[in-house]
Amino acid sequence: MKIRKYLKNDEKDWLQCRLLSFFDTSYYDNIVRKKENYDNNAINLVAIEDNKIIGFIDVEIEKIKKQACYLEGKLGGVIWELGVLPEYRNKKTATRLLERAITLAKAKNICRFEAWTQDDIPINYWYKKHNFQYKEGYLNVFADQGKLVSDEIGKILGVRIVNFEASLDRKDELVKKYKRVHEVRLYELKFDE
Ligand SMILES: CC(C)(COP(=O)(O)OP(=O)(O)OC[C@H]1O[C@@H](n2cnc3c(N)ncnc32)[C@H](O)[C@@H]1OP(=O)(O)O)[C@@H](O)C(=O)NCCC(=O)NCCS
Question: What phi and psi, each to the nearest 5 degrees, are found at residue 169?
Fold first, then answer.
């Protein structure tokens, strides 16, 4: 397995890898058909095996504090995309993508990474195993239109699937009312200490 920078003509292979890597996660319907161009510089890496992309990491990198990061702190990067194809998992591919991203980030005076993710068990284990610290979270709630509650989301009535954010303390109440309630979690890894 080889790690290299993402190239422009990787886009189709990258999109397919992302689709399949997220298929067994709570991001299964977070589908993009074009790779994101970040506002700031980014570290975009791919893992190659069997002549195809089997894993990827995207980290948006700050030049000025708070350009991309949410938390107060030193210059940082935000991991917006991370995934490995199911049949290639547990072979340290994601670990190697992270290590390479940290090396490249340090060369740009980046001291920490933030990562937003949902409550899928593998990725949460993986972040904790790599010393990311949980910082805070919120709920990402999905409802069928038929189950809309007007005080909650009346202002976007007419959309077939509705989606809104709520505070974590409402979880017990909202899981009873809506079909999908995910905890969105923010992690941070400091690597300058
Ligand atoms: C999380 C993910 C990136 C890890 O990729 P990977 O290349 O398999 O990871 P590594 O080989 O570097 O590390 C494996 C570690 O992941 C964790 N892990 C993997 N699968 C797991 C599972 N089913 N349950 C719990 N932990 C799991 C463990 O910590 C494991 O190490 P250990 O068994 O030694 O404790 C991969 O599972 C994945 O692509 N998940 C779906 C994508 C995703 O959820 N992305 C987040 C949205 S941005």
Answer: -70, -5
